[in-house]
């Protein structure tokens, strides 16, 4: 199963890189040097963000975000990590499962062929990490989102809704870092 995952990831990654190279080559062929440089700059920024995400001590969450646009979601995901400082451990399993549930709820609640976009900003801080979720698109079943957001949260997750309308959803999740003794217990 794990080898299949690796082969699948490599296949998607190769496909993405070939698309990007074709965009650069096409723009160069059309003598659109500035646009080709813009695409290269975008690739550099994306790669830096992927590196920052991968360096957080959240391997399951990082994997979910890195592979998200390869899944059949009805939204395009973008993420940004604000700081590349060494972060402490969070409950990666809890955060990943919660985010998967969010993605499922969002998928069921939004217009399938709409231009839907989800941005996640990750801000590692001294006592935990803040995650800012910002969705723009077409929400056709807002009751599904309301149900998801009103579910009782694990004590580690603190959720605060900032905005919710038919075209936008913005909320913040705070997750404290694990305590040393809890961290040690989780590895036994």
**Level-2 CATH architecture of the largest domain:** 2-Layer Sandwich
Number of domains: 2
Oligomerization category of the chains in this entry: single chain
Q: Spell out the CATH superfamily of the largest domain.
A: Sporulation initiation phosphotransferase B (SpoOB), C-terminal domain
Number of strands: 5
Offer a quick outline of the entry:
With 188 residues, the protein is of the alpha+beta class. The chain has helices at 2-29, 33-55, 59-68, 92-109, 142-150, 180-186, and strands spanning 76-81, 117-124, 128-136, 158-164, 168-176. The chain folds into two domains: 1-55, no CATH class; 59-186, 2-Layer Sandwich (Heat Shock Protein 90).
Write up this protein:
With 188 residues, the chain is α+β, with helices and mostly antiparallel strands. It is 51% helix and 21% strand. The protein has 6 helices and 5 strands, in the order αααβαββαββα. It has a 5-stranded mixed β-sheet with strand order 1-2-3-5-4. The model is unreliable at 181-188 (pLDDT under 50).
């Amino acid at each position: 199963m794990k080898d299949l995952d690796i082969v699948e990831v490599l296949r998607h990654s190769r496909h993405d890189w070939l698309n990007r190279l074709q965009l650069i080559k096409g723009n160069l062929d059309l003598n659109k040097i500035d646009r080709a440089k813009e695409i290269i700059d975008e690739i550099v920024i994306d790669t830096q963000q992927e590196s920052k995400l991968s360096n957080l001590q959240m391997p399951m969450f990082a994997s979910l975000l890195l592979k998200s646009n390869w899944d059949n979601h009805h939204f395009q995901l973008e993420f940004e990590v604000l700081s590349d400082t060494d972060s402490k451990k969070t409950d990666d399993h809890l955060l990943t499962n919660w985010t998967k549930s969010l993605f499922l709820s969002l998928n069921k609640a939004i217009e399938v062929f709409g231009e839907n976009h989800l941005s996640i900003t990750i801000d590692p801080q001294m006592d935990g990490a803040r995650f800012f979720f910002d969705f723009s698109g077409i929400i056709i079943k807002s009751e599904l989102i309301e149900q998801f957001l009103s579910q009782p949260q694990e004590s580690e997750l603190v959720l605060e809704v900032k905005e919710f309308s038919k075209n936008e959803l913005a909320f913040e999740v705070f997750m404290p870092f694990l305590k040393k003794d809890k961290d040690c217990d989780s590895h036994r």
